[in-house]
Amino acid sequence: MSTLEIVDLHASVETDTGDQPILRGVDLTITQGQTHAVMGPNGSGKSTLAYVIAGHPKYRVTQGSITLDGTDVLDMSVDERARAGLFLAMQYPVEIPGVSVSNFLRTSVTAVRGEAPKLRLWLKEMKEAMAALSIDPSFAERSVNEGFSGGEKKRHEILQLELIKPKIAVLDETDSGLDVDALRVVSEGVNRYRESGQTGTLLITHYTRILRYIHPDFVHVFVDGRIVESGGPELATALEDEGYEKFIGAARAGASS
Amino acid sequence: MSPVMVPATDHAPLVVSYDPEAFEVPTGREEEWRFTPLARLAGLHEHPQATSTARIEVSAPSGVTVTDVDVAELEGDASAPPIDRISAIAWAQASTITRVVVPAESQIEDVIDIVVDTPAGVSFGQLRIDIGAFAQAKALIRFTGAGVFAGGIQVHVADQARAAVATVIDPAPTAVNVSRLHVRLGRDASVTSSVISLGGDLVRMNASVEYTAPGGDAEFLGLFFADGGQHHEHRVFVDHSQPHGRSSVTYKGALEGEGTHTVWIGDVLVRANAIGIDTYEVNRNLVLSDGARADSVPNLELETGEVVGAGHASATGRFDDEQMFYLRSRGITEELARVLVVRGFFADILGRTRIPGLAESVMTTIDARLGVSDLVAEVLGDGDDGQS
Q1: ipTM
Q2: Which of A83, A90, A102 lies nearest to residue B331, judging by beta carbons?
C-alpha cells in the first residue's frame, strides 16, 4: 500500500524581488485507493502544491518533507519522482514540436516501467487506451500537444495516466476549460484508473463540478498556502453552496492571531 | 515573412575567377564574411601552402569510372569558376581533380562511396562527379581527418539524369573545412543534395545550384548539429536562370553550448527569363541551451513575377525549461529528453536524403554527442526509429 506523506511543507517561488513564500505548512497524507480533493480559490497556492510534488525547478522547498513510502521525494530529480510512481496531470500541458505522441508515450512508459514494451503489444495497448478516451488514432503521429484543443490536451494527460499507471496521481485543474462532454470522458478515464485500486489520487480543483463525476473520499479547503479545513464529500457540497469566503476570512483571522 | 525585394543579382557572386588575387582578403565586414570568425580560418585567406595532402578515395560500383584529371582540363565552361578567394586558392592549389563519371543511361544502384580524408596540416582537394544523360546514381561523400581543408565538389547532372548526393562533414574536433558544393543541372535533370555537418571546429559550406536548361529540379537538404563552441556556416545559392525549374531548400540545425554558432544564409535568385519556376526555402533551428546562437537569413530576389511559387521561411525555436520539465515529469531522463526532441526535429530531413543507411548513421553520431544511454538505444532502436 503506497502512501504519499506531506508534512509541514513550506515552499517559495523565485521572483525578481526575492523569494515569495507560497506554501505555508501543508500537511496531507494520501494512500493508494483514496481520492483527495484539494479545493481553493485562485492564488491560494494549490497548483504550486502540485508542482512542488512533481519537482518543478521554479519552486524552492524551505521547510517540511514529502515522502513516498518513507523515501524522501524532495531528494529525487523530476524524472526520478515519475519513475518512483508520482504523476502530475498538468493544467497547461506543454507543446513539444517534432516529438510524436506515439514516440513520447512509448519512451515515457519504457522509462517508468524500466523496460521497453514489446512493439506489437504496445501498439495494441496504446490504441485501446486511446479509443477508451475517444482520441482519434491519428493523434499518435501528431506532435505532443502541438495544435491540440484544450479538451484534447486534457484527454492526452489522462491517456498518459492510464498508460503510465502511477502510484500517486496529482490532477491539477484537469477540469478547467472542458465542456461537459469532455469533462465526462476525462472523468471516466480517471475513474477507470481509480477503480484499479492502484492509485492514490489528489484532485486539485477550483470548482465542485468535477466532483459530480469523480467522487472524493476526502475534501480539503486550501487557503493562503495551507489546508484550513478537511472533511468528507459533504464539505464540497458546503463549498458549492457557500463559496470560499467563510474560509478565507477564517484563514486571515487565524494568520493574524 | 514576406519576400525581401532587393536589387537584381544582389546575391549572385560579383566576381568569379580562377585567380585568387582577383579577390581581396576579407576584413570581416563584408556581407558574406560578417558571420565567420576569420581568425579560426587558419590563414586560408592569406597565402596558404599545402602542408599535407587530402586523400580522396572512391569506392565505385561497376560501371562507374574514376580518374585523376588536370585542373586545366576543367577550367572555362567545363565547370563553375571559383566565387571567392578561398575557393580560388583551393582550385589553384589542387593539381588534379578526382573525376567520377557515371555513363549516360546507366542505372547505378549501389552508392558511390567517397571519403575525403584531410590529415593534420593544410590541404586542398577537388572532386567532380558527372552523371550522364538519363543516368541515375547516388553518391555519399564523407569528410574525415583533423586538418585544415579547402576544396570543391562539382556535380554535373546531365539531361534527365537523376542524382542523390550526400555530403557528410564530420572531421575531428580540430578540423577546419571550407568547402563549396556546386550542382549544374541539365534539361529536366534532378538532384537531391544533402549537406550534413557534425564535426570540426569551423565548417563553412557554400552549396549552389545552376540550371543550364529548362525543367531542372533541385532538392537541397541540410542538417547541422553543433556544440562545444563549433562554428557551422551554411550558405545556399539557387540561381534560377532557366524557365520551369524547381528548387526546394530545407535546412535544419540544432545547437547547444557556450559560444556555439550556426549560420544559415539562403539566397534564391529568380532571373527575368526564369518564368514558371517554383521555389521554396526554409531554415529551422533548435537551440538546446543558453549561450548558443543561430543566425538565419533568407533572401529571395524575383526579377520576374511569372512564377508558380516563390516563398521562404525561417524560424529559430528553443528547447526550454518547461518542455524539459514536461518530459522529465513523465520519467524521461534529461539526456533522453534531448535525444527525443533532436530526433524528432531531424526526422523529416533524414527521411528524404535517398541515401540508404544515412539516417541511421547520422542519428547514431548525434545520439552519441548527446550522451545516449543503453536505455535510449533500447527505446528508440526497437523497430520504431524516429517518426513514422
Answers
A1: 0.96
A2: A83
Is the distance from CB of B355 to CB of B140 less than 8 angstroms?
yes
Domain span holding position B120: 20-318
Pairing verdict, β B202-211 and B231-240: parallel
| Per-residue pLDDT, B384 | 43
| Structural domain contains residue B134 | yes
> Of B222, B297, B221, B291, nearest to B261 (Cα)?
B291
Provide the angle, in degrees to the nearest 10, between the axes of the packed helices A101-113 and B374-381: 140
* DSSP conformational letter for B237: E
Task: Name the residue among B195, B196, B61 with its Cα closest to residue B135.
Answer: B61
Among candidates A95, A103, A112 on the partner chain, residue whose Cβ is nearest the Cβ of B340 = A103
Query: Which of A110, A112, A138, A167 to mutate to test binding with chain B, by most B CBs within 10 Å of its CB?
Result: A110
Q: What is the count of residue pairs from A and B with beta carbons less than 8 Å apart?
A: 102
Count CB atoms within 10 A of the CB of residue B31: 10
Which are the contacts of A126, defined by CB distance < 8 A and separation ≥ 6? A102, A105, A106, A140, A163
Chosen for mutation from A73, A80, A88, A96 (greatest number of chain B CBs closer than 10 Å) is A96
Contacts of A72 (CB under 8 A, 6+ apart): A65, A66
pTM beyond cutoff 0.90: no
Residues B274, B333, single domain; the answer is no
B314 & B219 share domain: yes
DSSP B110: E
Q: Is B305 on the interface with A (CB under 8 A)?
A: no
Residue B271 burial (C-beta neighbours within 10 Å; 0-12, 13-18, 19+) = buried
Q: Give me the residue from A55, A77, A108 closest to B330, CB to CB.
A: A108
State the fold for domain A3-93+165-256: Rossmann fold (3.40.50)
* Rg of chain B on CA atoms, in Å: 20
- Asked whether residue B334 falls in the same domain as residue B279, the answer is no
Do B272 and B328 reside in the same domain of the chain? no
Asked if the Cβ–Cβ distance from B328 to A82 is below 8 Å, we say yes
Q: Which residues of B touch A77 (CB under 8 A)?
A: 328
Q: Which residue of A has its CA nearest to B326?
A: A94
Type of residue at A181: D
Chain B residues closer than 8 Å to A112 by CB: 330-331
B330 lies within 8 A of chain A by CB: yes
Q: Are strands A86-89 and A168-172 parallel, antiparallel or unpaired?
A: parallel
Distance from CA of B325 to the nearest CA of A (A): 7
Q: What is the pLDDT of residue B78?
A: 87
> Between chains, do B388 and A141 touch, taking CB under 8 Å as contact?
yes
Tell me what pLDDT residue B378 has. 58
Helices A101-113 & A119-132 angle (0-180, nearest 10)? 110
Q: What is the pLDDT of residues B221-267, one digit of tens each?
A: 999 999 999 999 999 999 999 999 999 999 999 999 999 999 999 99
Tens-digit pLDDT profile for residues A131-140: 999 999 999 9
Contact B114, B54 (CB under 8 A): no
pLDDT of residue B227: 97
Would you state the pLDDT for residue B375? 54
- Out of B317, B347, B378, the one facing A116 most closely (by C-beta) is B378
Phi and psi dihedrals of B279, rounded to 5? -135, 140
